Every structure is written in structure tokens, then in C-alpha cells.
């Protein structure tokens, strides 16, 4: 299957297949965060916030060390969020990134369309346990449009999703809300929208 062979290739090359990246986001987890969007997701949820991330194709291959250096070069990043696409299809390489940024004092969070039980099950993606072991926070479950939350105090976008706090020190940092928009002006002048309503903004 294509996603498995791509996963194996990335593992062998020690590279992350990126869909996008931004520094200093405040709508993708607690504090000020680097956000790493990976390429590839097979779920195709209705009203997915990021359909450009679905295809399992090579987009931007970045060596692990280069990605870590990029994250750490911005002193305002206090954490990293892996989003997608599906981060757990690149779990092994993202676990390596996580270990290195945690060693530098950052916390690590991930969004996933899998449930935690699936990630701990026998059919989980390669490296799932390895990445889970590095996470401080996890939001699991696919986005289900009919269960959309749409309230400014919720860290999840649909009510089937669950927030797992693996690091008790982060218990009092669940202060961000999913139902917000952030606009980043990039160095080349492009605008990057992020946050749950990004899809609505870009399509209006
Ligand atoms: S799991 Fe996430 S990235 Fe994948 S289709 Fe659903 S909402 Fe989009």
C-alpha cells in the first residue's frame, strides 16, 4: 500500500514529509507553538480543516535535524504540535523530532484521527507507541461534522474527540480553544490561516 511504502521510505531516510509549518501559533495547543503539518491522511473527513494534506505524496522532505533546528531557532516557541494530515503515519520520525525538542525544554502535542485505543492496538501504525511515549498531550479521534462543538472554550473540534493529558504538569494549561482563527503573514508575503474556522475563511 502506498502510504506504508512512503512511511518506510521516510523512516529509512530520517525525513519528515511536511505539508506546512508555522511558528508562534496560539490556536493549536497551549502557549506559543511551532506547528508541523504532515502530508497524508486517508480519512477524508467531511469539512476537514486541511484537505490539502490528504494525498500520500512527497511534498517537502525535511531531515529531522533541520526540522528540529527550525523549531528551536525561534525562542518564542514553547512547544510543538504535530498535526496533519495524520501524524501517526510518520510516527517513528516524529518521535525522533519529539525527543530532540523535549531535550531542549519544549513540550509536545499531537492531533490524530486514530483513537488512543487504536494507536495502542495490534494494527497501529509503525512507531505509534514510540511517539505516544513522547507526547505531553494528545487529541484523538477524527473530526465529525455532525458532532461539531463550535464553542470558544473547547480544545476539541467535535465532541467525539478526546483530550489526553499524559503530562500532569500540563493540567492547568488547557486554555486554548479550537474555535479560533489565526492568520500568519509569512516572509514571502503569503498568508497562512490556521485554527478550526480556517476552512470557512478560505472558502468564503
Ligand atoms: S483526520 Fe484530520 S486531517 Fe484527516 S481528514 Fe480528518 S480532519 Fe482531515
From TrEMBL:
Keywords: 4Fe-4S, Iron, Iron-sulfur, Metal-binding, Oxidoreductase, S-adenosyl-L-methionine. InterPro entries: Aldolase_TIM, NrdG, Organic_radical-activating, rSAM, rSAM_sf. Its cofactor is [4Fe-4S] cluster. One of its GO terms (molecular function) is 4 iron, 4 sulfur cluster binding. Gene3D superfamilies: Aldolase class I (3.20.20.70). Its EC number is 1.97.1.-. The keyword 4Fe-4S applies. Activation of anaerobic ribonucleoside-triphosphate reductase under anaerobic conditions by generation of an organic free radical, using S-adenosylmethionine and reduced flavodoxin as cosubstrates to produce 5'-deoxy-adenosine. Belongs to the organic radical-activating enzymes family. This is Anaerobic ribonucleoside-triphosphate reductase-activating protein. It comes from Tumidithrix elongata BACA0141.
Amino acid at each position: 500500500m502506498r502510504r506504508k511504502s512512503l512511511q518506510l521510505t521516510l523512516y529509512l531516510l530520517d525525513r519528515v514529509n511536511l505539508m506546512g509549518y508555522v511558528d508562534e501559533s496560539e490556536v493549536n495547543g497551549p502557549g506559543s507553538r511551532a506547528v508541523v503539518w504532515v502530508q497524508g491522511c486517508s480519512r477524508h473527513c467531511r469539512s476537514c480543516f486541511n484537505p490539502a494534506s490528504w494525498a500520500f505524496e512527497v511534498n517537502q522532505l525535511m531531515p529531522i535535524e533541520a526540522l528540529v533546528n527550525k523549531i528551536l531557532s525561534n525562542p518564542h516557541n514553547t512547544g510543538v504540535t504535530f498535526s496533519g494530515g495524520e501524524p501517526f503515519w510518520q510516527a517513528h520520525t516524529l518521535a525522533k523530532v519529539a525527543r530532540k525538542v523535549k531535550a531542549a525544554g519544549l513540550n509536545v502535542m499531537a492531533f490524530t484521527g486514530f483513537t488512543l485505543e487504536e494507536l495502542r492496538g495490534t494494527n497501529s501504525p509503525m512507531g505509534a507507541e514510540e511517539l505516544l511515549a513522547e507526547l505531553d498531550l494528545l487529541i484523538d479521534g477524527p473530526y465529525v461534522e455532525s458532532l461539531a462543538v463550535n464553542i470558544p472554550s473547547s480544545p476539541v473540534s467535535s465532541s467525539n474527540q478526546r483530550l489526553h493529558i499524559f503530562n500532569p504538569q500540563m493540567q492547568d494549561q488547557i486554555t486554548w480553544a479550537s474555535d479560533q482563527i489565526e492568520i500568519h503573514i509569512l516572509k514571502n508575503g503569503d498568508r497562512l490561516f490556521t485554527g478550526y474556522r480556517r476552512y470557512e475563511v478560505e472558502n468564503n
